[in-house]
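Quick one:
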Amino acid sequence: MALTKEQKIKQIKDVKDKISNQKSIVFVDFAKVPSKDMFNLRRDLKKEGCNLKIAKKTLIRKAFGQSNISFWNKIVSSVPGQLALVLGIEDEITPCRIVNKFAKDHESFKILGGIFESRFVDREKVLVLANLPSRNELLSRLVGSISSSMTNFVRVLDKIKEEKEKIVA
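Output:
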């Protein structure tokens, strides 16, 4: 069923609002993915503070043009089928991780590229980002590294103190 002009304008505005409030965008081709699985993906994304937006490519192109995002020529060359935008609103890396996990379970679901830090990145870079540890995991590793260094330093100082006490005694 064809969209009316008002519906198209509303969708363009909606896409424009969503891409203006995001930290990252991942472009995916979801052709031949069952709608039940897409609903599950939406639910998983929503839990993590992300969003999935499906619209016609021409409407997405117009929204990008109105938002002064000039990556459409790079994007359209890698989009053979249907296009969906996975928007990272709270975290940049979380959408990559979720869609990469989903793509492993669904062969017809393809990651096409993304926009990170106002730059277009290709599929390979999105997959690299998807394999990065989460922010909390990195912070816990940092704290562990710092605390282990301090612990080892305190042990060395205790050994020096014990050696001096043996010499004095």
